[in-house]
Amino acid sequence: MALMTGDQYVESLRKLKTRVYIFGERVENWVDHPIVRPSINSIKMTYDLAQDPAYQDLMTATSNLTGETVNRFNHLHQSADDLVRKVKMQRLLGQKTASCFQRCVGMDSFNAVYSTTYECDQAHGTHYHDNFKNFLKMVQENDYVVDGAMTDPKGDRGLAPHAQPDPDMFVHVVARRDDGIVVRGAKVHQTGSINSHWHLMMPTIAMREEDKDYAVSFACPSDAEGVYMVYGRQSCDTRKLEGSDIDVGNPKFGGQEALVVLDDVFIPNAYIFMNGEYDFSGMMVERFAGYHRQSYGGCKVGVGDVVIGAAALAAECNGVERASHIKDKLIEMTHLNETLYSCGIACSAEGHATPAGNYQINLLLANVCKQNITRFPYEIVRLAEDIAGGLMVTLPADKDFKSATVAGRNGETIGDICTKYFAAHEDIPTEDRVKVMRFLENICLGTAAVGYRTESMHGAGSPQAQRIMIARQGNIDGKKQLVKDIVGIEK
């Protein structure tokens, strides 16, 4: 099958029987649900741009498995240049959607599972690598979206998986059969889960022998028997039910997270990529985390570009664009954003081949990239809020601006009064000023803040996870030896 168009992607979702719950009720037509649809539009953009000749160099690649053209999100990186193009693609999509476009977790899980299964097979004589290659060929040929799912609820985080009072706090095997396994548990914070055709499950932490039933990786359709999803709340999400595009801020695009429950789901042997090989669980986790930390040097930078542009527009709306302190803040925002991008490019450019043949990023630099991501977007947003002013969060509703209710002494309506008193620059209509302010609110505090601010902190591992990896890979002993060599210390 050729690459799907964006419209074909949307229609393909309608064929799924995914069980989705929102606000306590099952939603049959979740594709057109006003809270869900913006996140579908964001993924749709990954298909639309792949069809555009101007972007095909970034958005598509040649599969090493089939020799066919595939969407880059379904590609195994074959060079450091592939890794660089990935980051550039992610920045482009952030610029186009100002939101999370939800396919990075799938791409990053493909590359982590591909190399880990190869090395696991070499050590244990298993056949997971062939299983995974066959699965990925199917994904590429059908141009599917796959949700990479790693994060378990974890329960009491002071206890190992096998020691949890409730064993379902980590996904685990509850039965092994000749034709496959039965799994139970849940994955949380799952980005783009209900918008995906398939799910690729991975362990969430390094395991010990006692945890071998939790050392499991597999793929299953999103609408498989026993799989259901509870949609996650986002700040200001019910504004999408009120009928005002302006109050939503970014009415077309958005992100999505959900709780994905696995209620005794059967997984055929062909879709199993780890089944008790606990000694390779840490490798899979570390490699996925490294790829995903690299990803943030692209997607968050693209959204950052939009935040900077919105802040500059807000300054123009307020009539202060020439003020030196405004210019200085925009420069600082740009400096921080390009620093993040530099880290994403650096860890990509220093990538290397794995034994399986696909390319892995420089793990130290990827962790440095993500450590910066946990900080810089917060400062970029702070400066954006500083430039925009308090109006960003105190504006009346769009219904007030459109209200025909008479309130003024000369017969002015509430709409007239709001339009009058929230005007600033004489050449910029009040409505345009409101649109910019609501757009910034969406990214800084609203639905998009999930994917720009909070995900920057906790996505792909919370800050301490990167610091642990930096400590492991920072080679302090090697740096001490440099000094000894220079000054002549022999021990």
Automatic annotation (TrEMBL):
This is Gamma-aminobutyrate metabolism dehydratase/isomerase. One of its GO terms (molecular function) is oxidoreductase activity, acting on the CH-CH group of donors. Keywords: FAD, Flavoprotein, Isomerase, Lyase, Oxidoreductase. The keyword Isomerase applies. Residues 282-487 form the HpaB/PvcC/4-BUDH C-terminal domain. Residues 5-274 form the HpaB/PvcC/4-BUDH N-terminal domain. FAD binds at T191. InterPro entries: Acyl-CoA_Oxase/DH_mid-dom_sf (IPR046373), AcylCo_DH-like_C (IPR036250), AcylCoA_DH/oxidase_NM_dom_sf (IPR009100), HpaB/PvcC/4-BUDH (IPR004925), HpaB/PvcC/4-BUDH_C (IPR024719), HpaB/PvcC/4-BUDH_N (IPR024674). Its EC number is 4.2.1.-, 5.3.3.3.
